[in-house]
Protein backbone atom coordinates (compact mmCIF):
# COMPACT_ATOMS: atom_id res chain seq x y z
CA UNK A 1 0.00 0.00 0.00
CA UNK A 2 1.52 3.35 -1.06
CA UNK A 3 1.75 6.44 1.16
CA UNK A 4 -1.28 8.17 -0.34
CA UNK A 5 -3.48 5.15 0.38
CA UNK A 6 -2.14 4.85 3.92
CA UNK A 7 -2.88 8.54 4.50
CA UNK A 8 -6.34 8.02 3.00
CA UNK A 9 -6.99 5.11 5.38
CA UNK A 10 -5.97 7.09 8.46
CA UNK A 11 -7.90 10.14 7.27
CA UNK A 12 -10.98 7.99 6.79
CA UNK A 13 -10.58 6.48 10.25
CA UNK A 14 -10.27 9.96 11.78
CA UNK A 15 -13.41 11.16 9.99
CA UNK A 16 -15.45 8.01 10.57
CA UNK A 17 -17.08 9.44 13.70
CA UNK A 18 -18.60 12.33 11.73
CA UNK A 19 -22.23 12.23 10.70
CA UNK A 20 -22.78 11.39 7.01
CA UNK A 21 -24.06 14.45 5.17
CA UNK A 22 -24.72 14.68 1.44
CA UNK A 23 -22.15 17.03 -0.16
CA UNK A 24 -24.71 18.13 -2.75
CA UNK A 25 -27.93 18.88 -0.85
CA UNK A 26 -26.86 18.66 2.79
CA UNK A 27 -29.38 15.98 3.78
CA UNK A 28 -28.38 13.36 6.34
CA UNK A 29 -30.85 10.61 5.41
CA UNK A 30 -28.98 7.92 3.48
CA UNK A 31 -28.54 4.25 2.82
CA UNK A 32 -25.34 2.28 2.26
CA UNK A 33 -25.09 0.69 -1.18
CA UNK A 34 -21.43 -0.42 -1.33
CA UNK A 35 -18.34 -0.76 0.85
CA UNK A 36 -14.55 -0.77 0.49
CA UNK A 37 -11.84 -1.74 2.98
CA UNK A 38 -14.38 -1.91 5.85
CA UNK A 39 -13.75 1.77 6.70
CA UNK A 40 -15.31 3.45 3.66
CA UNK A 41 -18.82 3.13 2.33
CA UNK A 42 -20.80 4.50 -0.58
CA UNK A 43 -23.93 6.28 0.62
CA UNK A 44 -27.00 7.15 -1.41
CA UNK A 45 -28.65 10.39 -0.36
CA UNK A 46 -32.35 9.69 0.09
CA UNK A 47 -33.17 13.29 -0.81
CA UNK A 48 -31.26 13.95 -4.05
CA UNK A 49 -30.07 10.41 -4.96
CA UNK A 50 -26.41 11.35 -5.14
CA UNK A 51 -23.90 8.68 -4.14
CA UNK A 52 -21.08 9.89 -1.93
CA UNK A 53 -18.12 8.35 -0.17
CA UNK A 54 -18.17 8.22 3.61
CA UNK A 55 -16.08 9.25 5.44
CA UNK A 56 -15.57 12.24 3.17
CA UNK A 57 -12.98 15.02 3.04
CA UNK A 58 -13.29 18.70 3.87
CA UNK A 59 -13.47 21.43 1.23
CA UNK A 60 -10.10 22.74 2.43
CA UNK A 61 -8.52 19.30 2.00
CA UNK A 62 -9.99 18.97 -1.50
CA UNK A 63 -8.63 22.35 -2.52
CA UNK A 64 -5.15 21.43 -1.33
CA UNK A 65 -5.32 17.88 -2.72
CA UNK A 66 -6.12 18.99 -6.26
CA UNK A 67 -3.28 21.49 -6.35
CA UNK A 68 -0.56 18.86 -6.75
CA UNK A 69 -1.41 15.66 -4.86
CA UNK A 70 -4.11 14.28 -7.18
CA UNK A 71 -2.55 11.51 -9.28
CA UNK A 72 -4.08 9.12 -11.81
CA UNK A 73 -2.44 7.20 -14.61
CA UNK A 74 -2.13 9.04 -17.91
CA UNK A 75 -2.32 12.62 -19.09
CA UNK A 76 -5.11 13.61 -16.70
CA UNK A 77 -2.58 14.31 -13.97
CA UNK A 78 0.79 13.60 -15.62
CA UNK A 79 1.94 16.73 -17.39
CA UNK A 80 3.46 15.86 -20.78
CA UNK A 81 7.13 16.23 -21.49
CA UNK A 82 8.25 18.93 -23.93
CA UNK A 83 8.71 16.25 -26.60
CA UNK A 84 5.27 14.75 -26.09
CA UNK A 85 3.59 18.15 -25.92
CA UNK A 86 5.22 19.13 -29.23
CA UNK A 87 3.87 15.93 -30.82
CA UNK A 88 0.37 16.49 -29.39
CA UNK A 89 0.27 20.03 -30.76
CA UNK A 90 1.58 18.96 -34.18
CA UNK A 91 -1.17 16.32 -34.45
CA UNK A 92 -3.86 18.50 -32.80
CA UNK A 93 -4.19 15.72 -30.20
CA UNK A 94 -5.73 13.39 -32.82
CA UNK A 95 -5.92 9.73 -31.72
CA UNK A 96 -4.30 10.60 -28.40
CA UNK A 97 -5.59 9.92 -24.90
CA UNK A 98 -6.86 13.51 -24.85
CA UNK A 99 -8.43 13.71 -28.30
CA UNK A 100 -11.59 15.80 -27.82
CA UNK A 101 -12.89 15.50 -31.38
CA UNK A 102 -16.04 13.76 -30.16
CA UNK A 103 -16.74 16.53 -27.67
CA UNK A 104 -16.23 19.19 -30.32
CA UNK A 105 -18.59 17.42 -32.71
CA UNK A 106 -21.13 17.10 -29.90
CA UNK A 107 -21.11 20.84 -29.24
CA UNK A 108 -21.36 21.61 -32.95
CA UNK A 109 -24.32 19.22 -33.26
CA UNK A 110 -26.13 21.19 -30.55
CA UNK A 111 -25.47 24.48 -32.34
CA UNK A 112 -25.22 23.46 -36.03
CA UNK A 113 -25.91 26.95 -37.41
CA UNK A 114 -24.24 29.12 -34.80
CA UNK A 115 -21.07 30.84 -36.02
CA UNK A 116 -19.65 31.82 -32.61
CA UNK A 117 -20.11 29.41 -29.71
CA UNK A 118 -19.03 30.63 -26.28
CA UNK A 119 -17.74 27.77 -24.10
CA UNK A 120 -16.65 27.68 -20.48
CA UNK A 121 -14.28 24.75 -19.95
CA UNK A 122 -14.79 24.14 -16.24
CA UNK A 123 -12.05 22.05 -14.66
CA UNK A 124 -9.75 22.62 -17.61
CA UNK A 125 -6.77 20.78 -16.10
CA UNK A 126 -3.66 21.71 -18.13
CA UNK A 127 -5.64 23.03 -21.08
CA UNK A 128 -5.86 20.13 -23.54
CA UNK A 129 -9.61 20.49 -24.17
CA UNK A 130 -9.55 24.29 -24.17
CA UNK A 131 -6.75 24.24 -26.74
CA UNK A 132 -8.74 21.98 -29.07
CA UNK A 133 -11.93 23.99 -28.53
CA UNK A 134 -10.10 27.18 -29.53
CA UNK A 135 -8.61 25.47 -32.59
CA UNK A 136 -12.10 24.40 -33.65
CA UNK A 137 -13.28 28.03 -33.58
CA UNK A 138 -15.05 28.22 -30.23
CA UNK A 139 -14.78 31.33 -28.04
CA UNK A 140 -13.35 29.69 -24.91
CA UNK A 141 -12.84 30.65 -21.29
CA UNK A 142 -11.23 28.18 -18.91
CA UNK A 143 -11.22 27.54 -15.17
CA UNK A 144 -9.04 25.20 -13.13
CA UNK A 145 -8.49 24.96 -9.37
CA UNK A 146 -4.88 23.74 -9.71
CA UNK A 147 -2.58 26.72 -10.19
CA UNK A 148 0.41 24.75 -11.45
CA UNK A 149 -1.71 23.09 -14.16
CA UNK A 150 -3.13 26.47 -15.13
CA UNK A 151 0.44 27.73 -15.40
CA UNK A 152 1.41 24.78 -17.62
CA UNK A 153 -1.47 25.65 -19.98
CA UNK A 154 0.45 28.75 -21.01
CA UNK A 155 2.60 26.40 -23.11
CA UNK A 156 -0.55 25.84 -25.18
CA UNK A 157 -1.29 29.57 -25.21
CA UNK A 158 -4.37 28.82 -23.12
CA UNK A 159 -5.24 31.33 -20.40
CA UNK A 160 -6.81 29.47 -17.49
CA UNK A 161 -8.40 31.36 -14.62
CA UNK A 162 -8.05 29.99 -11.08
CA UNK A 163 -10.48 32.41 -9.41
CA UNK A 164 -14.22 31.90 -9.92
CA UNK A 165 -14.77 35.66 -9.65
CA UNK A 166 -12.84 36.07 -12.91
CA UNK A 167 -15.26 33.94 -14.93
CA UNK A 168 -17.53 35.74 -17.40
CA UNK A 169 -21.14 34.90 -18.25
CA UNK A 170 -23.54 34.55 -21.16
CA UNK A 171 -21.97 31.28 -22.27
CA UNK A 172 -23.62 28.95 -24.75
CA UNK A 173 -21.97 25.91 -23.18
CA UNK A 174 -20.83 25.04 -19.67
CA UNK A 175 -18.55 22.09 -20.35
CA UNK A 176 -17.01 19.74 -17.80
CA UNK A 177 -15.30 16.41 -18.37
CA UNK A 178 -14.78 14.27 -15.28
CA UNK A 179 -14.94 17.17 -12.86
CA UNK A 180 -18.21 16.89 -10.93
CA UNK A 181 -17.16 13.63 -9.26
CA UNK A 182 -14.30 15.55 -7.62
CA UNK A 183 -16.22 18.69 -6.69
CA UNK A 184 -16.76 19.08 -2.90
CA UNK A 185 -20.26 20.49 -3.49
CA UNK A 186 -21.79 19.37 -6.82
CA UNK A 187 -24.88 21.52 -6.29
CA UNK A 188 -22.65 24.62 -6.31
CA UNK A 189 -21.21 23.56 -9.66
CA UNK A 190 -24.73 23.23 -11.11
CA UNK A 191 -25.68 26.61 -9.62
CA UNK A 192 -22.61 28.17 -11.23
CA UNK A 193 -23.62 26.72 -14.59
CA UNK A 194 -27.06 28.30 -14.23
CA UNK A 195 -25.47 31.63 -13.32
CA UNK A 196 -23.08 31.86 -16.27
CA UNK A 197 -25.18 30.27 -19.02
CA UNK A 198 -27.54 32.04 -21.37
CA UNK A 199 -31.23 31.19 -21.04
CA UNK A 200 -30.94 28.64 -23.84
CA UNK A 201 -27.43 27.64 -22.79
CA UNK A 202 -26.41 24.01 -22.40
CA UNK A 203 -24.58 22.26 -19.57
CA UNK A 204 -22.56 19.28 -20.80
CA UNK A 205 -21.31 16.95 -18.08
CA UNK A 206 -19.21 13.80 -18.45
CA UNK A 207 -18.51 11.66 -15.37
CA UNK A 208 -18.10 8.04 -14.25
CA UNK A 209 -21.42 6.23 -14.45
CA UNK A 210 -23.06 4.96 -11.27
CA UNK A 211 -26.45 4.19 -12.81
CA UNK A 212 -28.39 1.03 -11.99
CA UNK A 213 -28.16 -0.14 -15.61
CA UNK A 214 -24.36 -0.44 -15.27
CA UNK A 215 -24.47 -1.70 -11.70
CA UNK A 216 -26.81 -4.55 -12.65
CA UNK A 217 -24.66 -5.90 -15.47
CA UNK A 218 -21.14 -4.91 -14.34
CA UNK A 219 -20.90 -4.52 -10.59
CA UNK A 220 -17.11 -4.83 -10.72
CA UNK A 221 -16.83 -1.60 -12.70
CA UNK A 222 -19.49 0.11 -10.58
CA UNK A 223 -17.49 -0.81 -7.47
CA UNK A 224 -14.16 0.31 -8.95
CA UNK A 225 -15.02 3.89 -9.92
CA UNK A 226 -15.74 5.39 -6.51
CA UNK A 227 -13.26 5.87 -3.70
CA UNK A 228 -10.24 7.95 -2.78
CA UNK A 229 -10.07 10.23 -5.83
CA UNK A 230 -13.75 9.93 -6.77
CA UNK A 231 -15.64 10.92 -3.60
CA UNK A 232 -18.86 11.55 -5.57
CA UNK A 233 -20.62 9.10 -7.84
CA UNK A 234 -23.60 9.82 -10.06
CA UNK A 235 -26.50 7.86 -11.46
CA UNK A 236 -28.96 9.06 -14.08
CA UNK A 237 -31.59 9.51 -11.33
CA UNK A 238 -29.51 12.22 -9.62
CA UNK A 239 -29.45 14.38 -12.73
CA UNK A 240 -33.06 13.71 -13.72
CA UNK A 241 -34.11 14.88 -10.23
CA UNK A 242 -31.88 17.97 -10.31
CA UNK A 243 -33.16 18.93 -13.77
CA UNK A 244 -36.74 17.78 -13.30
CA UNK A 245 -38.04 21.16 -14.56
CA UNK A 246 -35.56 21.45 -17.41
CA UNK A 247 -34.85 19.81 -20.76
CA UNK A 248 -32.23 17.09 -20.55
CA UNK A 249 -30.84 14.08 -22.33
CA UNK A 250 -28.95 11.54 -20.23
CA UNK A 251 -27.06 8.67 -21.78
CA UNK A 252 -23.77 6.79 -21.50
CA UNK A 253 -20.80 5.69 -23.57
CA UNK A 254 -22.70 2.57 -24.63
CA UNK A 255 -25.09 4.75 -26.62
CA UNK A 256 -23.10 7.74 -27.88
CA UNK A 257 -23.96 7.04 -31.53
CA UNK A 258 -27.61 7.97 -30.94
CA UNK A 259 -27.01 11.35 -29.33
CA UNK A 260 -27.78 13.48 -32.38
CA UNK A 261 -31.16 11.78 -32.74
CA UNK A 262 -32.23 12.66 -29.20
CA UNK A 263 -31.00 16.18 -28.49
CA UNK A 264 -34.34 17.75 -29.35
CA UNK A 265 -36.19 15.62 -26.78
CA UNK A 266 -37.67 17.48 -23.81
CA UNK A 267 -36.54 14.99 -21.19
CA UNK A 268 -35.08 11.61 -22.03
CA UNK A 269 -32.86 8.96 -20.49
CA UNK A 270 -31.13 6.70 -22.99
CA UNK A 271 -28.98 3.63 -22.44
CA UNK A 272 -27.06 4.16 -19.20
CA UNK A 273 -25.18 0.88 -19.08
CA UNK A 274 -21.83 2.28 -20.28
CA UNK A 275 -18.86 3.23 -18.10
CA UNK A 276 -19.15 6.98 -18.74
CA UNK A 277 -22.27 9.04 -18.11
CA UNK A 278 -23.16 12.03 -20.30
CA UNK A 279 -25.70 14.65 -19.26
CA UNK A 280 -26.83 17.39 -21.65
CA UNK A 281 -29.17 19.83 -19.93
CA UNK A 282 -30.57 23.33 -20.23
CA UNK A 283 -30.73 24.41 -16.57
CA UNK A 284 -32.15 27.89 -17.29
CA UNK A 285 -34.99 26.70 -19.49
CA UNK A 286 -38.21 25.00 -18.39
CA UNK A 287 -39.87 22.16 -20.25
What would you say this structure looks like, in words?
It is a single chain. This protein is an alpha/beta fold and 287 residues long. It has eleven helices and twelve strands. The chain has helices at 3-15, 59-69, 82-90, 101-110, 128-135, 147-152, 186-196, 212-217, 219-224, 236-242, 259-262; strands at residues 30-36, 40-45, 51-54, 118-122, 139-143, 160-161, 171-177, 197-208, 232-233, 248-252, 267-269, 276-281. An eight-stranded mixed beta sheet has the order 6-5-4-7-8-12-10-11, sandwiched between helices. It has a four-stranded antiparallel beta sheet with strand order 1-2-3-9, with no helix packed on it. α11 links the parallel β10 and β11 (267-269). The N and C termini lie far apart (50 Å).
Amino acid sequence: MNNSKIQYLFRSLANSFNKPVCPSCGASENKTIDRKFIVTSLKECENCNMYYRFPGDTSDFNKEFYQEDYVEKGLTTDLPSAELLKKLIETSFKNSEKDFSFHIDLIKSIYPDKKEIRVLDFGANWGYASYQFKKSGFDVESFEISQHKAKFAEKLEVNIKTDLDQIGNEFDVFFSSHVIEHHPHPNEMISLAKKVLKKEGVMITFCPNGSDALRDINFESFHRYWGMVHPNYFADKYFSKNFKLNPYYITSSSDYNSISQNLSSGQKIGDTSGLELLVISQPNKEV
